[in-house]
Amino acid sequence: MPAKFNGLDKSTLAKWMDKIPSDLYVTCPYCKQSVYHQKLGPFQECPHCGYGFRLGAAARLKIVTDKFEAFDAELAVDPALVDDQYAEKLTKAKQHSGLPESVVTGMATIDSLQVAIGVMDSNFMMGSLGSATGEKLTRLFEEATRRRLPVVLYTASGGARMQEGLHSLMQMAKVTQAVTAHGEAGLCYLVVLTDPTTGGVTASFAMEADITLAEPHALIGFTGRRVIESTLHIKPPADFQRAETLLANGFVDDIVARSAQKATIVSLLKLSQGGA
Length: 276
Hints:
The chain is α/β, with parallel strands linked by helices. It has two domains: 15-53, no CATH class; 55-272, 2-enoyl-CoA Hydratase, Chain A, domain 1. The chain contains nine helices and eleven strands. The chain has helices at 10-18, 57-64, 84-97, 131-147, 166-184, 199-202, 225-232, 243-248, 258-272; strands spanning 4-5, 8-9, 25-27, 34-36, 67-70, 103-110, 113-120, 151-157, 189-197, 211-214, 254-255. A hairpin with a 2-residue loop joins strand 6 (103-110) and strand 7.
C-alpha cells in the first residue's frame, strides 16, 4: 500500500477500510469476478457469467411459486440412527438452515398450474441424502401420483449422507421406485439441477426426470474431481462436470437462468399436459 492514497495516510485508510462490511462485495465461485452484492439482483445471479449463487429453499420457492403449502414439514431422522457426533452435526445444520431436514416438499401453484414440488437445500449438511430426505421425497412423488400432479424438483446435494450408512444409500432405490410409479401413471417429472448436484442424488432420481433442466455453470456429477484424478491418474477437463458439458453430451435438455425458470417450467408442464 502506498504511503498515502487520495490524501489519506496508511493508518487512516486502514481504519476506514475496516468499517466496510465484509459482504459488500462477493466473489463469483465460477468466473472469480468480484461483484457488488446489489448487482446480483433478486435472482442472485453473477452479472459477468450468469452463475446462480446458492439459494436456500425458502428463497427459491419465493422465486418460482405463487403459492406454497408444505407437508411433512417436521419429518426428521429416526433417533435410532443418530449417535452423539451425528446429533451435533444435525443440530448445527438445523441452526444454519432453519430447516429440520435437507429438503422442503409440498404442493404449490406456479402461474395457474398445480404441482407437487421439492427443493433441496445445500445449507443443511450440503443437501445430503439421508433417510428422512428420502422419505420426504418418496412421499412427495406418491402424493403427486395420488393427486395426478406433475412434480417439480430442485436438486442441490453433495450426495448420500454417510453418517447413516446403508440407510442413506437405500434412499436412492426407494425414491427411484416412487419416481417410476409416478411416470407409469403418465405424469410428468421435471427436475432443475442446481450447483452442486453430485453423488448418489445424481446417480438416482436427479437423472430420472422426463425433463431435465440445469442452471448455468452448475456443478453436476457423481464422483468428485480429486477422486477421479487419484484413481484414474488423469486430469479431466476443467469444465467436464459443468452444466454446459452435460448439455453438449445429451444429459441435460436445457440450461435456464433463474430469471426465466418460472415461465419455462410453466410452458413445459403445459406442453406435457397437451396444452399450448
